[in-house]
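Hello,

Following up on my earlier ticket. Below are the two sequence lines again, exactly as submitted.
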Amino acid sequence: MSLAARHLEENGIPTVVFGCARDIVEHCGVPRFVFSDFPLGNPTGKPYDLDMQREVLTLGLDLLANATVPGTTVVTPYEWSADHSWKDKVLTKAQPFLDPEATRKWLESKEAYRALKAAGKI
Amino acid sequence: MSRETASHVRYIDRTRAYYEAEGYAKPYGWAHFDSIAFTPFASVGKPLSQCRVGVVTTSEMARRGVEAEPDDLRRLVYALPTDIPVEDLRSRKEAYDRYATTLDDVDSYLPLTHLHRFVAEGKIGAVAPRFQMIYSEYSHRKTLTIDAPEILKQMREDRVDVAVLTAV
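Thanks for your patience. The regenerated structure is below:
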């Protein structure tokens, strides 16, 4: 996603990225970034909180119009919960990122993609 | 509370540790650049209220009530119309924090309802007729040489002025 933003920007389309993985997006480097300190999944506001979603999107549009230097990050002023324990087990054995079925599909699709690539089909 | 939980999650470190423990010897090389391209908004030459906004997401959307297409093994960029009501969309994304949240509310990661409202309120000029899905890819090469150019091509066809990208 960050690479796509960079490509659009290099070709004359101003971009703003919304995301929850701050380190990954900033490690890559994107022109404009709205960061929400939320679990991966809701980069434009909490589910069903329409006011928050509207505010987050507004922050991004304002950033589009007003950023003057590349690599600008705006941090949304919202907390997922007062208790930050949701962060403790992210990507641990206790909470595997993908469930077993999704892991199986991921490994299968990876192999299929490699086969297509080896055959020169992509 | 640990020091880490007091601030944002370091996904790069967590991913490295997680997959090392799973037996993967070589850590993933996350994309990194020393410089960042920048197209000043002023170069668009008009206010947001006259701009057409394009939308890109990693949320792997599909239409509800329509038989799902088989998975595209090539994982190419695809698009759907932006005038589909969000109630008729669903995400097929499996890589998100399923322990802490859900993808049940589309506007929490693909803010189509709000963008349409902003058009009605005159804050933005228009929403592009279609939005693009890009897969979160292992291969930087594929994203840079296949997926990103396809999104640019579609956005140029749709005369997009500025782009909103949402990483799920």
